[in-house]
Amino acid sequence: MIEASLAELADALAAKKVTSVELTERYLARIDRHQGALNAFVTVDRERSLAQARAADARLARGERTPLLGIPIAHKDIFCARGWLTTCASKMLANFVAPYDAHVIEQFGAAGAVILGKTNMDEFAMGSSTENSHFGPARNPWDPARVPGGSSGGSAAAVAARLAPCATGTDTGGSIRQPAGFCGISGIKPTYGLVSRYGLIAYASSLDQGGAFARGAADLALLLNAMAGFDARDSTSLERPKEDYARDLARPLAGMRIGLPREYFGAGMDADVRAAVEGALAVLRTLGATAVEVGLPNSALSVPAYYVIAPAEASSNLARFDGVRYGYRAPEYGDLADMYRKTRAQGFGTEVKRRILVGTYVLSHGYYDAYYLQAQRVRRLIAQDFVAAFGECDLLIGPTSPTVAFPVGAQVSDPVQMYLNDIYTVGPNLAGLPALSIPCGFGAGGLPVGLQVVGPYFSEARMLNLAHQFQLATDWHRRAPPGFAAQ
Amino acid sequence: MSWEIVIGLETHAQLSTRSKIFSGAATAFGAAPNTQACGVDIALPGTLPVLNRGAVERAIRFALAVGGELNRTSVFARKNYFYPDLPKGYQISQYEAPIVAGGALTILAGGAEKVVRLTRAHLEEDAGKSLHEDFHGASGIDLNRAGTPLLEIVSEPDMRSAEEAVAYARTLHALVRWIEICDGNMQEGSFRCDANVSVRRPGAPLGTRCEIKNLNSFRFLERAIEHEARRQIEILEAGGRIDQETRLYDPERDETRSLRSKEEAHDYRYFPDPDLLPLAVSEQWIAEIRSRMPELPAARRARFESRYKLSPQVAAQVTASRDKADFFERSLMKIDTETYPEAPRDLANVTVGELTSQMNERGLEFSQSPVSPEQIGRVQALVLDGTISGKIAKDVRKAMWEGEGDPDAIVARRGLRQISDAGALEAIVAEVLAANPRSVEEFRAGKEKALNALVGQVMKATKGKANPQQVNDLLKGKLSG
Amino acid sequence: MSLSSSDVLRIAQLARLEVTPAEVAAVQQDLNGILALVAQLQAVDTAGVAPMAHAQDVMLRLRADEVTEADQHRLFQAIAPQVEADLYLVPKVIE
């Protein structure tokens, strides 16, 4: 059962081969067993989950049939869920019980999905390894000495280890795709504006986008069907007709033009990653796709532009954490200014403070034009590169990350080294484009390699089509980490 | 050598929307603490701003009223600073691209008209309130006001005296109420002024300015500017230098003092709010709002001067509020102003005098008057057709204020109809002459004043119901006969 | 552009983050490393390129002026650090 796709789970629930309560119990038991080794979850609330499962069973018993009804899902601990601790993996919010539901939580609730728990992450989604968590690092199920990627590392590790059939994440500079790649599962970041940010605790508002993890692309289509949609409470939410993201899954790839950005295939990518990505390209060719080399000439600037824009927005977004209305307040302080300084210095971790300081600096008087405004101009150049590339191809492919998962602790002392993990993933965020990562083989140490697919705005169905056809021809996404396969 | 005072005002007008500028919480004044502060207003993590159409509409109305340029695209920015009444740690405001640029306001000061240019007007959100009563050494924060829509209206430094500044503030205050974008309640903080004051020798470049905050009445505005100008002149005359700073006016001590705590680390790090896309204002929207704009105060004042022959002063007073001007015009509706061209001036005088003091005494707006404009007009009509005298008219209005009902009913019930029967009046005149021989003698001896005493006696005897002109004529006839 | 330790303290003050004397050198080194990474942007010719503040080129949607939020202060204040008389308490605000 734990190897089943979401569609298969829905069939089993409908056929009463299993109840939602049984399914939920099974996953909760797996979480219990593996939490110690993986630290994938921040919060598990057995009774709440089972109450939701019972409600789903009642809906199933009434004959209701919707694709996610009764299916357990893990949520990144960045989504506010009423009555649940919602910590963003920060000491600042370690006691924060959300008084309302995020739009994404409401959507999955309405669809009848059962919340299995809240997953570990880099604090406030700042990081690429899930080591920057107040609750300790999450681990990669393929090798617990390695990171699962980040910032949505807990969600990726949970799905890879079969602790949850699917999970949500958020992606600001690669935070879904990179951990999906490191953990050997599938993950999608939709077009900016497709999934409401209401209730998603903001890191960098113009880049943040909710998305999903599952083992296969067909599952992602179902998850996206539930979570995408207009929400009037988010001014950047796009008013578009509902679409079925599964509509193109079965379409053959014959005639699809795949663009290979030469900047993504240059130096910087490890040899094992290159081998897996080229293997994937060969598969796609046998499926009838054609490849064309394209250029993204400004892609080397995407990490620098990102590390100006994202910290700038973050420095402002995180100003609300001041110890006044919710969250942590320092136990001892003098005057008001001292209360702010101590609360924030104690409540935030090192990387969060680093980005707040960088962001404060690049917006400050005398530096705004040189850093922030320049980064926004470069952002447009990067976005224009993608538009030009899509004039020559339907979708772009390349590596998700330049390396496979690295050891826990290997990069924590060197922020710049850590930032360069995002080299292939931040471009689509800057442009607002949809992108996904699917497993495409294994590299050194038997660790998974991710293949990134980037599409034009609103091309999710087409991207999932490529991913699904690839997954019909390969079984990388079915491989379970040793020790986590079905028993 | 004399000094010239240079003043520019920044005015925050709370816009009269039902809900807040970026959230669906209510804006009503005086609610229990924090009961009108929703998740967006208290900046719960994950909450997002959504702009209120009503706030934008009011800004458009303002732009049309002052002849400002409406930026077809404007941008909301974040002004970042830490303060406990600012829940997000930033205020959403408009910085580089405000919704309104330019415009002007014509004021009347010292008997002359003057045009004050506007720099800009932009939309922003209000902050909450820090309550300073002592909670064991702590302050209490009420966020009900947080997120209330404001239009910040910035003038050019075009005013040259406290009197002009007050005239500007009053004109602006009347205008925002006139076009119904702000209730103008200064006690409740709906209309607040900050003044930028500097002094210079005439013809010299602008001096260093100080910004004075917390001016929530016209009287404080006037006194604060006068005080601040004096302070600056004293410093300069003693050879000192003015530091650019923010000062707070303390009405109890009638002085301004430096607000250094807010000055520290003055770097707001403005940047476009990534949660809010650019605001577009379409031609169609502007045209639709324009079509619903009322006649503006300046146009109405001019029309009153030319059509009703009001003096500029009285026209300005009648148009001090839209309510008052409407009341005046409605009171005229039942009067044939072609036959009685004097009537509008008489009614205007009644409106700015007697009626205005009645409203002030009762704390009412003209729109809330218990006596209708039609009733006031009817009283005047009764004077014009000779039914009652002007003096009796005042009594009739007094009775109406006391709730005695319609003017016709009051006249009938109290028997106030003017005595027009010449025979009856002649008899009374004869009695008065007989009873006042000394006055008669005096008049005949050439003392014209004695006639007034006799008229007064006749009016007294008729309880004011005689027509004074008719009494005059009768008396003169008898005395010369 | 390289930050001095006093620059670091100034920025930390703006951001209301306490940086102790013992931490300054490490923070300074981290920030200068990051600024060196982003310094590449300075060399790019962006003349005539409009800054891109949003991922989508769309205009703001407006909401109707309606009160949609009910009073929830008890729920909200249940998670507040310090509340009295329905007010959030903070160290004395001096104006």
Indicate the topology:
The complex is a heterotrimer of chains A (487), B (481) and C (95).
Chain A: H1 6-14, H2 20-38, E1 41-43, H3 46-61, E2 72-76, H4 103-111, E3 114-119, H5 153-160, E4 166-170, H6 177-183, E5 186-189, E6 210-214, H7 217-227, E7 257-261, H8 271-286, E8 290-294, H9 302-317, H10 336-347, H11 350-363, H12 368-389, E9 395-399, H13 415-419, H14 426-431, E10 435-442, E11 448-454, H15 460-473
Parallel strand pairs in A: 2-3, 7-8, 7-9
Antiparallel strand pairs in A: 1-3, 4-6, 5-6, 5-10, 9-11, 10-11
Helix pairs in contact in A: 2-3, 5-6, 7-15, 9-11, 9-12
Chain B: E1 4-14, H1 53-66, E2 69-70, E3 73-74, E4 76-80, E5 90-94, E6 100-101, E7 104-109, E8 112-125, E9 129-135, E10 138-142, E11 149-155, H2 162-178, E12 191-200, E13 210-215, H3 218-237, E14 245-250, E15 255-258, H4 260-263, E16 271-272, E17 279-280, H5 283-291, H6 297-308, H7 312-318, H8 322-331, H9 343-362, H10 373-384, H11 390-401, H12 407-414, H13 422-435, H14 437-444, H15 449-461, H16 468-480
Parallel strand pairs in B: 13-14
Antiparallel strand pairs in B: 1-11, 1-12, 2-6, 3-17, 4-5, 4-16, 6-8, 7-8, 8-11, 9-10, 12-13, 14-15
Helix pairs in contact in B: 2-3, 6-7, 7-9, 8-9, 8-10, 10-11, 13-15, 13-16, 14-15, 15-16
Chain C: H1 5-14, H2 21-38, H3 73-77, E1 83-84, E2 87-91
Antiparallel strand pairs in C: 1-2
